[in-house]
Amino acid sequence: MTRLLEEIKQYQSKFRQKAPAEKQRLMAEATAELTASGIAKGLGVGDTIPHFTLPDVSGKPVAIETLLEQGPVILTFYRGGWCPYCNLELRAYEREIERIRALGATVVAISPETPDFAEQTADKNGLSFPVLSDVDLHVSRQFDLVFDLPDYLIEIYKASGLDVAKHNGNEDWQLPKPATFIIDVDGVIRFAEVSSDYTKRVDPEHILQNLE
């Protein structure tokens, strides 16, 4: 088992021990409903990605075309810095960043959080790769990743002190599914993984195998 998968397993074990049973049941129900809905399947291998420009944590615009001029791009969509699984995944990419760069690739993380919250995510995880803000989920929609949080899950988040709407700078209560893509220099997707289950993440080791 890889380090990321082991870390996820450990977190899940602690969550099951501490979280109220009803909270666990409802969160599992939300995941099952999203999976069964078939919505937001995401772009797939062979698709050409849309051109886009998004701000980084300092507000500087970053264009995907510019990054692709330097080599393949590993594009990972995450829910937000409030999500423990997202943080584990982002740190896993940072651990492998030198190996990724040695293969000529760039990692780019995208979430619906505002640049201020994205900066907090980058800082607390010690990230050296670009973290971009897709406020209002315009790019995430183009990748077919966006879904609405059910009302009962919104109430669970609020009861836990989590205001996703505040993090995202709007009142939509929408998120992207966790997703990872390898984009070739011509803008075509070489690898794609989109998960309705937010606890399931692609290990960077698997990404490295697809880059080599």
UniProtKB/TrEMBL annotation:
Gene3D superfamilies found in the cross-reference section: Glutaredoxin (3.40.30.10)
MF terms (GO), sorted A to Z: thioredoxin peroxidase activity
Pfam families to which the protein is assigned, alphabetical: AhpC-TSA (PF00578)
EC class: oxidoreductase
Family annotation (SUPFAM superfamilies): Thioredoxin-like
Record InterPro entries: AhpC/TSA, Peroxiredoxin_BCP/PrxQ, Thioredoxin-like_sf, Thioredoxin_domain
Annotated GO CC locations: cytoplasm
Catalytic reaction equation(s): a hydroperoxide + [thioredoxin]-dithiol = an alcohol + [thioredoxin]-disulfide + H2O
UniProt keyword list: Antioxidant, Disulfide bond, Oxidoreductase, Peroxidase, Redox-active center
EC number(s) from the headed UniProt entry: 1.11.1.24
Residue stretches making up the Thioredoxin domain: 43-212
Any one biological process term the GO annotation gives: cellular response to oxidative stress
Coiled coil: none
Function text: Thiol-specific peroxidase that catalyzes the reduction of hydrogen peroxide and organic hydroperoxides to water and alcohols, respectively. Plays a role in cell protection against oxidative stress by detoxifying peroxides and as sensor of hydrogen peroxide-mediated signaling events.
Family statement: Belongs to the peroxiredoxin family. BCP/PrxQ subfamily.
Stated name of the protein: thioredoxin-dependent peroxiredoxin
Organism name: Salmonella enteritidis PT4 (strain P125109)
